[in-house]
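hey
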């Protein structure tokens, strides 16, 4: 078994760690619930493309990306103290991503995924600026939201290389390795975030 296959398998099943941390407190926290739903959708998309519809992966992942944009946009809207118009930004990004899906047809939508990654990195930076500016959390590592944003930032920063170089690496020996490693890191951060929300009142 090659290293690429092992990394892909760990990436596919790593959301199970998140689900193991879920309890009634983490489900009662609206931000945690959004991340749990996002992780469930990600796991479902991976399972569908890996085991049931391998030749429909472009369609399934494009649909998942639209859900991902909506859920993460809502998450950032709820977490920032100064209410930046994340819902407006989310609607614009959904429209742009949908347009790139239309023009890419049945091919992989590298332009849409690259655009989504850049926007998500910027949104993560806005979140950290918001924490710094309003000095909301003295010990930010104790906040579930902090770990969720670290996961989002880690995933989209790492996956950006896969999205940018998709044409070159689709036929390479280590297909999507950066993406899968970033996905594992994201799910570990999400697991910590859900765990931090378990003890919330």
């Amino acid at each position: 078994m090659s290293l690429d296959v092992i990394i892909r398998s760990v990436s596919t099943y790593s959301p199970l760690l998140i689900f193991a941390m879920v309890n009634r407190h983490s489900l009662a926290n609206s931000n945690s619930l959004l991340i749990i739903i996002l992780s469930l959708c990600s796991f479902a998309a991976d399972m569908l493309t890996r085991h049931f519809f391998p030749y429909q992966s472009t369609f399934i992942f494009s649909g998942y990306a639209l859900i991902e944009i909506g859920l993460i946009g809502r998450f950032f809207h709820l977490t920032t103290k100064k209410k930046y118009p994340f819902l407006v930004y989310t609607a614009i990004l959904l429209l742009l991503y949908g347009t790139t899906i239309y023009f890419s047809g049945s091919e992989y939508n590298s332009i849409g995924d690259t655009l989504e990654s850049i926007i998500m990195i910027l949104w993560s930076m806005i979140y950290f600026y918001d924490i710094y500016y309003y000095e909301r959390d003295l010990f930010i590592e104790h906040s579930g939201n902090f770990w969720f944003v670290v996961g989002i930032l880690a995933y989209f920063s790492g996956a950006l290389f896969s999205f940018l170089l998709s044409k070159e690496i689709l036929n390479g020996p280590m297909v999507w390795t950066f993406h899968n490693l970033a996905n594992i890191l994201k799910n570990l951060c999400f697991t910590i975030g859900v765990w931090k929300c378990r003890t919330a009142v």
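The chain has a mean pLDDT of 85. Residues 110-134 form the longest helix (25 residues).
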